[in-house]
């Protein structure tokens, strides 16, 4: 970056100097015999100066031998300083560069990093695996990552608890608990999150009787800038404990976490296709009778894919079921659609590969969907045809599978993507309000009215309430249930222009849902998926909405006590939870 800055400065100074030299040169020369000769000499001088500046720049800033396209893009490949770290989220939608990226190996090193940063008043934002779609853990000023603090410290098999370092990934933890016959109560769609990160943003799985993941936390060790290392639980400083469980990384760096586990068990997953009319008739029973359940809606169709999971014991053993279609038969029509689409849009795919080179028959369904979308991502008719093919794929994929909960509860989310997920109350488990289904009906109608090229799926999940005040599912009543609805647009290529166009269309899609649905359903975005508006009025409106739902003043008060210099903050946190003395 330093070289880039110096380069820009050199070019600017050269331009200024050349302009003054030319002025002096032409003021000192007597008038030419003819205007034509004067013009010729003037432009010859310009050309010579331009060549000189170009040569000087090229040889002053040599490129590495392996730099690509040196002649076409000289400046882009100027080498960056070795101490500059580039950190981006998984979807590539948010990226920062920083010179301050710390990875302590133990609590003592973490304490020293936090203490020194606080003394210097330099920011070190806690960042986990970088999976949050909005990059909530990113900061140009500096970051601290606990990937090297990933050990299981203690397992209490009798109490079914586990104490871990916060940098351990979900899959690592689950694998480590297998020999003890334990596992986590619930899972999000993927397993790569660090435990410290997944609890701090209020992540969740699905199951109307199961709370978000932060409710599994029964004790924490926080390294704070102002008070050093503190241990909190429901018995030791309970008010701070509940606030810090879903604390967005702003109250301290989570160093250790104690989690309540459950017995490891096999689940039966049943996937079947339904319609909205059938869902309305069976919704209450589906929520109450199944340990885990979610709906996948396919825009521009009436298809609702229902995925429900229950212990094998409930089925009295694995169900006997012979699928009507093989896996190849279920996906064949999607392959055929891709081959037809390649012919329609040209002989080559989005990356210049021929159909044969892409080995279509080896691609999974989500890979095929990405490639299909990449051909014409904002064409509603094209997206509708893909959605119809997806509906047919699910119809042919109906059936059962049996496996351990950590194997069954995952979900292939597809490739890079923009996503917005909202959470809103849906009544009581014994008496659902059906607001969750009304929300979906309005959302699907909005998509069709506005002709949004909305891909599948619209994912709907449920959780019980959380006692963490900052959780989107926060409620003092244990009987309350909350619905979580996610909308999506995929980023299937690395083409910058295409990604920009998709991004603009997604935010238009998101804005329409916000304007039409959020206030009426008391819907609030997932902390890892909320995007901060650039417009000042929109930002002020968002801040006002957050104050109505969450204890913003209590959170800011705790931040001031534990992190008075706000070294653990970043621009996103400062804007969402603005204070008058923001640094």
Automatic annotation (TrEMBL):
Protein name: L-galactono-1,4-lactone dehydrogenase, mitochondrial
Annotated ranges, domain FAD-binding PCMH-type: 94-264
Tree of life domain: Eukaryota
UniProt keywords, alphabetically: Oxidoreductase
Cofactor entry: FAD
Compositionally biased intervals (Low complexity): 465-476
InterPro entries: ALO_C (IPR007173), FAD-bd_PCMH (IPR016166), FAD-bd_PCMH-like_sf (IPR036318), FAD-bd_PCMH_sub1 (IPR016167), FAD-bd_PCMH_sub2 (IPR016169), FAD_lactone_oxidase-like (IPR010031), GL_DH (IPR010029), Oxid_FAD_bind_N (IPR006094)
GO CC annotation terms, alphabetical: membrane
Gene label: LOC106772555
Keyword Zinc-finger listed: no
Organism: Vigna radiata var. radiata
Pathway annotation from the record: Cofactor biosynthesis; L-ascorbate biosynthesis
GO biological process, one term: L-ascorbic acid biosynthetic process
Disordered, as annotated region: 457-477
Gene Ontology molecular function: D-arabinono-1,4-lactone oxidase activity; FAD binding; galactonolactone dehydrogenase activity
Keyword Oxidoreductase (UniProt): yes
Gene3D superfamilies in the record: 3.30.465.10, Uridine Diphospho-n-acetylenolpyruvylglucosamine Reductase, domain 2 (3.30.43.10)
UniProt-listed SUPFAM superfamilies: FAD-binding/transporter-associated domain-like
